[in-house]
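Reproducibility note. Readers wishing to regenerate the assembly model reported in the main text can use the exact inputs given here. Chain order matters: entities are listed in the order in which they were concatenated for prediction.
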Amino acid sequence: MLCDNCGEREAAIHLTQIVDNSVTTLHLCEQCAAEKGVETGASVAKFPLGDFLASLGKGGAAEGGTATEVACPACGGTLHDFRQTGRLGCARCYTTFEPHLRDLLRRLHGSSQHVGERYAAPAAGAPAVAAEEAGAGREIGELKDRLRRAIRDEDFELAAELRDRLKVLE
Amino acid sequence: MIDLKLIPDGGLGWLDASGPMANIVLSTRVRLARNLDGVPFNVRASEAERRQVLDDVNRVWQRSPLAKGGVRFLVDELEPADRLLLHERHLISKELATAATEKSGHSHAAVYLAGSLGLMVNEEDHLRLQVFHSGFALSQAYADLERLDRDLGAALPVAFHQEFGYLTACPTNAGTGLRASVLIHLPGLVLTKEIAKVLQGLTQVGLTFRGLYGEGSEVVGNFFQLSNQTTLGKAEDELLDHLGKIVRQVVTYEEQARQVLLRDAPTIIEDKVWRAYALLRYARSLSFEEAMNLLSGVRLGVGLNLIPKLSVYTLNKLLIYTQPAHLAALDVRALRDSEQRAARASYVRTVLDEEAARAG
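Running the prediction on these inputs yields the following structure tokens for the assembly.
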């Protein structure tokens, strides 16, 4: 069967979607599926955690050879450890290895953007910020950058304030 | 040996088959994975940190109205046989049942049980909240769990990332941390050989299937656990809705398959289910797998109204109590394999005899 999109290559991914009780099936070759950003159960199955983790080392090499040896400042865990065990060392690892994990989460889940319930910290005394919807997106981006810098510089007071402001905006 | 009577309903409230579609869908389980902010995940946490997690959670749990009438088991204090017993009731994970012994020092792992709610502490994640319901009851189950999640989250700092959501030790659980699964009995689809197509279809719509005991377990007795594969990028209610829609469809397929069997091969089916019943009623030695397969046949017979006067509750009970640790709890001699088979057959006979006597 040929790909529904390019009509040239053999279809390898068969995406079945159920929307409002009607079933549609799309047959795509791997290249077109990748271009469309399709992450299906089939492609997930082709990238089991172990294989993907094993490939992390190679990707890391391209970024300077020692990416897998960078240790998380909070728990000391490295990508190498993660590759061995399949488990991260702490919550901070998600920030330390953010690009790698974003990539991994996209492959595993088809998305890295959480849209479900949001955690509200206990006794959150966050100041109310009047965020206008239009400008909020850009402001969030800026705040995130400042937050990252603050964490890197270990200015935790500022980081906490920035995090609270982000929470209100988001 | 722990006193299982301490557990509300023995943690087996779902056995009563009171839930919707309880003949085909045995139970609904939903779990949420949570970690405390600022504490390493369990693989890297020190003994002192694990202890701190348990102390913190304990304080919050005691205050929660949801914990009323509940119990706590400290895994370090449980005999291996008791851990297995709780695992066979799906109250603790295989990891907690087996791994606690391998860790140096104390694991400080615990399980809290109250009503249909459960809370595992210091498993792969600091917190695993779970709920069990009889039959097909995703939204009711999740509603209970959400209350517990809110109670815990209101008092404990939870690891949360603005983009990635709730953070978990394994990235396969990140985002919502939600895994919903239904335990479903599909003999019709297996007998009509449609099952491969259905299972393949499941993986294409982002669901996954497992055996009776979850991850890595084999499918026995035509019992399947269907659950969501992904936990990130969709909201909780979307994940539940999606699973619910597909399960409803699978149940419809199963019912159709059963009708086909009854229409095209009534004698064969009737013979098959009654043979299964006869073997269970009179056999003197039963392996676990054989018992599961025979129970599957009898369950099909009850579902098709071919075997009257046998309740789904009894079938559910047999499913749980014929497991190795449960038999050993009734009779320590059942720890040895050959005697275990005899003990299993004897237990099944007794239960079925009693049921038959009651039915007159």
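We highlight two features of this model. The longest helix of chain A spans residues 133-152. Chain A has eight helices and two strands.
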